[in-house]
Amino acid sequence: MNGLNINELTVGQKASFSKTITETDVYLFAGVSGDINPAHVNEEYSKNTFFKGRIVHGMLSASLISAVIGMQLPGPGTIYSSQTLKFTAPVRFGDTITANAEVAEILTEKNRVILKTYCTNQDGVVVMTGEAVVLPPK
Q: CA dist 125 to 16, 47, 105, 131, Å?
């Protein structure tokens, strides 16, 4: 199973992946990453923060971009080279996050693709923006 190679990609091509983030997802991510910040895992503590309740790890939301890149655009066999991120709104437990990737530039001679990446919640609020550089399969 191989994803799209450099010659099968076009500027403007898009793909997305959606997932509802559960409390279990947050606790599993905290365990795997070691990030047990009380802003994510302690309801009593987080009630007194700027966000007035627990929020999902920014990197958990951003990791959904990896599903788009690794499984759809360009897909299996793609190597992630870099990713920039800007978190623009909090993600709450129960939010449905849609991760999006769009081909912004194709560098054929270097076998590199630049993707515009962003995540939105169920209300269409952009919660993260960024740019990825990937190497599609040959």
A: 15, 22, 25, 18
